[in-house]
Specification:
The chain has seven helices and six strands. It has 243 residues and is an alpha/beta fold.
Amino acid sequence: MVQFPVPNPVPQHVAIIMDGNRRWAKKRFMPQAVGHASGARRVRSIVQACAERGIAYLTLFAFSSENWQRPPEEVSSLLGLLVHYLEKEVDDMNANGVRLKVVGDPRRFDARLQKLISEAQEKTANNKRITLTIAVNYGGRWDMVSAVQAWQAANPNQSVDALGEGGLNPYLSMAYAPDAELMIRTGGESRLSNFLLWQMAYTELFFTDTLWPDFTPQGLDEAIDWFSARDRRFGGASQRIAS
């Protein structure tokens, strides 16, 4: 039987699709790269705000497996920002108790980026204030297929008929974290875009028109307030008493 979390006014795991960087730049007649850079700078304040509010896990969708279809110069800019972030922010994260995790398929990254990811995760591994996960070259479908393949490799003498939800969970890329309770998507779109498909089966979905570079801790509070008013039934009857 699947065990669901006890409802909490503050979600323990928040996932964010950081959308709107390009439109933010276009509105200001700036290059797309400026929008992405502004979005990257926004991350620090939101990580800090989540930690201050007692959120234990924050997962950011930074680069999807479909983003490789974008123009090469934009892809290069996005990955360059990740390199810059890992080089400049890890010491500060470590000093502030942030554990960094990176999920996704790393095989298309160059050796330098793979090394930076590995070193950043190792350096912050023992921090406990908040776990920041960055999803890069990540897709929810890829995650599920990879998990099934990993389970089969670990259980070569068993048929997949023996595989249940509980058996698959340890092989998912975010097995170290509880399922996301609140997902925020900025930028006005209202879709999941192949993000944490397994982990968001019962996630509350909050969509805002605010473009990611303009998303502030006050916007986070608005989403948390909305979440706290939700009646999270997980398919069962409401536990609330009607007034």
